[in-house]
Amino acid sequence: MKALVAYLSYSGNTEEVAEIIIEQLAQEGWSVDQYRIDFDPLLDITKYDLILIGTFTWYEGRTPDEIKEFVLDIGYKPENIAVFGTGDTQFGGEEQFCQAVDRLVKFYESRWEGLKIEQSPRGAQEKIVINWIKGVVEDVNTFIKAGKNIRTAISE
Ligand SMILES: Cc1cc2nc3c(=O)[nH]c(=O)nc-3n(C[C@H](O)[C@H](O)[C@H](O)COP(=O)(O)O)c2cc1C
Fold this sequence. Notes:
The chain has helices spanning 13-27, 65-74, 93-96, 99-108, 126-145, 150-153, and strands at residues 2-7, 31-36, 50-56, 81-87, 115-118. The chain is an alpha/beta fold. The radius of gyration is 15 Å and the shape is globular. The structure holds flavin mononucleotide (FMN). The site of flavin mononucleotide (FMN) has 22 residues, from helix 1 and strand 4.
């Protein structure tokens, strides 16, 4: 199974979450491509069984422009997108915490709950990241066991 982990990170927190996810997927036997949004050349996302998009949240709960551009570049709504992100409750409290994650989950009608991490995932929150990706993979595996193509099976 092939996964894409695409993320945007200025100060490294979202990248750390991406690294934990990549490590866990690799441990479970997945082949994983890492993609830095706004940095790496555009790629064909149709070849992936699972697409994970990672974002931080900016000014009053906003989605970074680079993420919006990436969404436009994708140009359609793949069914197999899961969303993760980091934020900080110091900016706008719970209400604006990781709102970019909520927005992307809603936009893509993601089957999976978005993962929200406060700042760096290293330490106590690492387990939360691992459990989240394990849950997503477990769900994907139910489709595979049923002999279905995850890229098209979700809405069937
Ligand atoms: C100017 C500024 C505004 C921010 N606004 C929010 C916000 O509204 N909601 C939120 O959850 N986090 C907010 N944050 C926190 C960042 O999303 C958080 O630090 C995140 O982990 C940064 O990700 P990165 O290290 O991958 O760049 C803000 C940070 C800065 C510097």
